[in-house]
Amino acid sequence: MNMTGTIKPSPSSDLQNFVESRSGQKVLRCYQCGKCSAGCPASYVMDMGPRQIMRAIQLGLREKVLESSTIWLCISCQTCSARCPNEIDIARVMESLRWLAAAEKSEPAEKDIALFHQLFLTLIKRSGRVHELSLGALYNLLGRHPFANMKRLPGMLARGKLSVLPPRVKGVAEIRSLFAKVKAMEKEHQKREVE
Ligand code: SF4
Ligand code: SF4
Fold it and tell me: Which of 6, 64, 69, 141 is paired with 113 by a 20 to 30 Å CA distance?
């Protein structure tokens, strides 16, 4: 994405302050070397690479960042974090942006991607692992595109890529308690932000 000519730096860097406090990362340490973008396995589908996201945060380009597809297409693989010469955990930066975008109900560039994320997490919480068939069915129904990707279904079932029955996972209670812990931490964090 070419941002030349579209950059209007924000005088107050609320976005940067938020990201730094939420993620614990020093955004200003980024000197735009581009090692994060070069290693990112998902950058080819993103509208802005991780390097551009870092720069946009520095410049306070709130809407551009929160409405980008990047923050939702990031798969949290942490390759960028491992490659950054300034030890910035960019994956955590992305996570803080997703949180903010969801809290502000920003319209993501990638249609229904927030729905996909919510369903993914709901299924993990319910059974400890994602059941892809349920994920696809719920995503299609709730996203109001009931027949999307249906042509792929028979082939995937035939090759054993999709299982009809939901997975059986041990320790689901433990996974649910992790979700509860994260929720409690978020509440605590929000409380501290208000104080
Ligand atoms: S964590 Fe996200 S931004 Fe970083 S390399 Fe992985 S997919 Fe790309
Ligand atoms: S690797 Fe680090 S310093 Fe380099 S562009 Fe990415 S965030 Fe900035």
Answer: 6
